[in-house]
Every structure is written in C-alpha cells, then in structure tokens.
Amino acid sequence: MSHFRIWFVVISKSKHTDMATYAVFGTGTVGQALAGRLSSLGNRVMVGTRNVADTLARKENDMYGNPPFAIWQQGHPDVQLGTYREAAALGEIIINCTTGQASVDALTSVGEADLEGKILIDIANPLDFSQGFPPSLVVCNTDSLGEQIQKAFPLLRVVKTLNTMNAWLMVNPALVPGNHTVFLSGNDSGAKETVKTILNSFGWEDRNILDLGDITTARGTEMLLPLWVRLFSALQTPMFNFHINIAGR
Amino acid sequence: MSHFRIWFVVISKSKHTDMATYAVFGTGTVGQALAGRLSSLGNRVMVGTRNVADTLARKENDMYGNPPFAIWQQGHPDVQLGTYREAAALGEIIINCTTGQASVDALTSVGEADLEGKILIDIANPLDFSQGFPPSLVVCNTDSLGEQIQKAFPLLRVVKTLNTMNAWLMVNPALVPGNHTVFLSGNDSGAKETVKTILNSFGWEDRNILDLGDITTARGTEMLLPLWVRLFSALQTPMFNFHINIAGR
Fold first, then answer.
1. Nearest-CA distance from A200 to chain B in Å?
2. Closest to A204 (Cα-Cα) out of A236, A234, A164, A238
3. B135 in A contact zone (CB under 8 Å)
4. Is A229 on the interface with B (CB under 8 A)?
5. How close is the nearest chain A Cα to the Cα of B144, in Å?
6. Do A219 and B134 touch (CB under 8 A)?
7. Distances (CA, A) of B206 to A98, B164, B194, B209
8. Is A108 in contact with A151 (CB distance < 8 Å)?
9. How many CB contacts within 8 angstroms connect chain A with chain B?
10. What is the distance between the alpha carbons of residues B222 and B162, in angstroms, rounded to a whole number?
11. Is there a contact between B214 and A213 (Cβ–Cβ < 8 Å)?
12. How many CA atoms, within 13 angstroms, populate the side-chain half-sphere of residue B8?
C-alpha cells in the first residue's frame, strides 16, 4: 500500500510546484512576503528595485516595523536583488509589489522586449498617505491602477489579485481560519489560469479564488482598501480577510 | 414546565420588538423590504415619497422586476404612504432608502422640527447609472453620502448601515447561510446601540454587527458597491454577503 501513497504525494507535489523564475518588483513587506514564499517553494526569484545600492543602504524598519530589505535578505540568501530591468530580464512572470504611485515608472524602466507576453501579477494599491490617515486612492471609481498598467503596457498580460489583504496572508491563507476569498481580475483567461496555479501553490483552494472578470473589475478590489484600513483600525489586527458567503453554495 | 416556556418566549419577544414608529423614505425595493419587515414585527410604519399621487400612479416593475409600490402595498395594508414631510412628522426613527442622488432633497423637504434629535438610518448608495453598467459613485474617496447627509443635517444622528447587501437580505440575514457581516458607521454611540437592536430584530446576531467607527467610515462601505455589482455579475445572484474572517476570533 505504501508505494501508492508515495506516488500520490509526488503527483500532488508536482501539481503545485511547477518551477518558474519570478521578478518581484518592490523591496517592502509585500515584495518580501512574495519573494520569500516563491523561493521557499523552489522557484528562482530576483527582487527588482529602482536603485540596488540605495535599497541595500537602507537601515530603518518601515512604518509598520518591518525590516529593511538587507536585513530580510540575510534570512533569504537564495533571493537575488537587481534593478527592475535586471529582474524583468530574468523573470518569466513579474509580480508588481511596488507602491501604486511607483508602479508605472518601475515598468517604464524595463525594455519592451523583457515585458512582451509576460504575465504581470499586480498586487499594488494606489494608496495616497500624503494627507495622513485614512489614506485616499490616487485613482478610483471610473478607472483603476490595474487598468492604467494594462493600458500603458499592452504587451503585458495583467492579472490583479491579492491586493485586498495583508502581505503574509497573501502567501499563507491558513493564517486566517476557514474559507476566505482572493479575487482575480484580468483580460487574459490563460494568464488567470496560470495565476490560479500560483495561488494554489501558496495554499489557496480553487473554491476560494473568485474570478471577477476583466481588468476593469480591479476598480472594485482597489476600492475595497478604504474599508480594509478602517477594519484594521476597528479590529486592531491586519490578520483578517473578506469571505463571500453565497446562498445555496 | 410549559408555563416556563411561555414566560421565556414572552421575554425574548419583548427584547426584540420594542415597538416604534418609523418613517421609511423611498418606495423602491429597499423601502418595501424595510417597511414590510418593520411592519410585520409590529412597528407602525409610514413610507415617505416626493409625490404620493405620482407614486400610486406608477404601474411598471422596476429595472430588477420588482413591483411598483401600489401593487406591493396591497399585500401590506398596515403600511401607510405619505409625503417625506408627513412620514418624518410621524416617525421616531427615519430610514433613508431613497436613491443616493435624491437623499438630500428628500430630507430638505422635511421641517427641522421633524428631524431634531432623530436617528436617521442611511441605507442609500450614491450610485450613478447614467453611463450604464457598471455604475460609478457620485461621491467617494475623500467624502461619502453618509457624511454629506450628516453635515447637511447636523440635527440628525446618522447611522450608515445595511447598504452593502441585497434588500431582502438586509431584513432577513438567514437568506445567506452562516455568519456574514453588517457594518455600522456613525458619530453617535447611543444611536448605534439603538440601530443594533433594530438589526437584532431583523435577525442579525451581535457577533455579525461590526462597528467601523465614525461617519467617515461610510466611505469604506459605500466604496464596496463597485465590487458588489461585479460580484452580482460574476455570481449571477444578488443573494450573497461579505463576511470578515479574523484570525483567532
């Protein structure tokens, strides 16, 4: 009986760990969470930043008390650091974990040849903290950051996802009990299927992955952020998520 | 044993049915759902409208196939119909179920003496369907309809709630299985406590009522609507709700 069990384990491992190379744009908490998780799953990862020397020189924790990239990298020696351009040249899939206001500039610094046909997983939110708390959105209502990126870079296959929750929860849904939801928005069905497989590898079950439709539906998930920040205040923890309960399902 | 049981039923009925008089502004589905439920619970209800004759003359179903007020009222003979002013003069509590763009005008047509100190339960959303689907919001991001109403009518104690779900679910949460969430926003703690009791009478358990804070948090719940309408499309049913899953609770 035991060799059947081993065979089953090998099959299920293979389903969830198709190795790939990833460019993770952004050296903050979201970038660290994504890069660390992808690397631990056996993928090759290069984190992209505007200026490598500046990133490595940073010594202060961020506003939430998370460590600077150089400290974090000591525990993740397999994760490389390069410019946005270097990371995009390496990565088959690009993950945008920059702040929303820096996203288009980051992608503009990459040559078109290194973007063409690639999936961009867009996790950024267009939050503006310049007027303090609560933040407002730089773009919303009749447009979204996801749409702006897709429009500016038509060569990319943009999939907006994971932007509605805490960074550690993105890559480890079991941190919140029970079923809860991750949304998908994008124009390319094949790209969304690939992203679902990546989400599966993080622990997201298919029944909790909800495809909203084309990239214009990113308006809805980005506009969830004003509620998210108020829930963070009211609940005094970032470790929560939205679940969609549906009658009869 | 049986008279103890009866005694228990009487106590629990009394807890949930402190009778009051309600002015329900708006003759559409949301107004019908709220007025019908409050009336069936034994409350006195007058629905308020801009023009009573116009409302009674309407013969067509709305865009969702719901009946016009005159047809609906045949099944709810205890629910009265009057002008906004007449309804507000009667109601101890006012419930705003108008379309968001009509809300301030409706309240302006009421004399200050009939608003002073009253709770206004604001269920309206500032949706603009003039450009087709998806609707946009007339106000969002750095302001909200809830705040605009509170600012225009400082005599009212505005509590924003129930605006994030289908009308029938508002008054019957059991239509969606399991735990799911209704949000509260408002500056007046006492008013929010009263509204919680009303929500309890509809079937909402305390653990599913989530107080977000002051009326500025209405930005978050109103900005949930762009996601709600896309979920309605993706799920092909309006009978769903958001639940907040929280680690360790």
1. 20
2. A164
3. no
4. yes
5. 12
6. yes
7. 39, 17, 12, 5
8. no
9. 130
10. 10
11. no
12. 5
Which of A175, A230, A237 is the best substitution to test chain B (most B C-beta atoms within 10 A)? A230
Is the pLDDT at B17 greater than 80? The verdict is no
Would you say A109 and A85 are in contact if contact means Cβ atoms under 8 Å apart?
yes
- CA quadruple B112, B113, B116, B118: dihedral sign: negative
Answer whether B240 sits within 8 Å of A239, measured CB to CB: no
Q: Which residues contact B101 (CB under 8 A, 6 or more apart)?
A: B126, B128, B138
Contact yes or no for B28/B41 (Cβ under 8 A): no
User: Collapsing DSSP states into helix, strand and coil, what is residue B160?
Assistant: strand
Q: Cis (ω within 30 of 0) for the bond into B134?
A: yes
Do the Cβ atoms of B127 and B135 come closer than 8 Å? Answer: yes
Q: Which residues contact B179 (CB under 8 A, 6 or more apart)?
A: A245, B205, B207, B208, B243
Alpha carbon of residue B162 to chain centroid? 6
Q: Scanning the structure block, which residue is given the tokens 């705003």? A: B96
Phi, then psi, of B93 in degrees rounded to 5: -125, 135
pLDDT digits (tens, 9 = 90+) for B118-157: 999 999 999 999 999 999 999 999 999 999 999 999 999 9
What ipTM, to 2 d.p.?
Answer: 0.91
Asked if pLDDT for residue B51 goes beyond 90, the answer is: yes
Bigger pLDDT: A4 or B32? Answer: B32
- Our CA dihedral for B24, A246, A191, A141, rounded to 10 degrees, sits at 10
User: Which residue carries 């919001």 as its tokens?
Assistant: B137
In sequence order, the 6+-apart residues with CB closer than 8 A to the CB of B228 are: A220, B164, B165
pLDDT digit string, tens, across residues A63-94: 778 899 999 999 999 999 999 999 999 999 99
- Tokens 């807890």 appear where? B15
Query: Which residue type is seen at B118?
Result: K
How crowded is the C-beta side of A226, counted as CA atoms within 13 Å? 27
Strands B119-122 and B93-96, how do they pair?
parallel
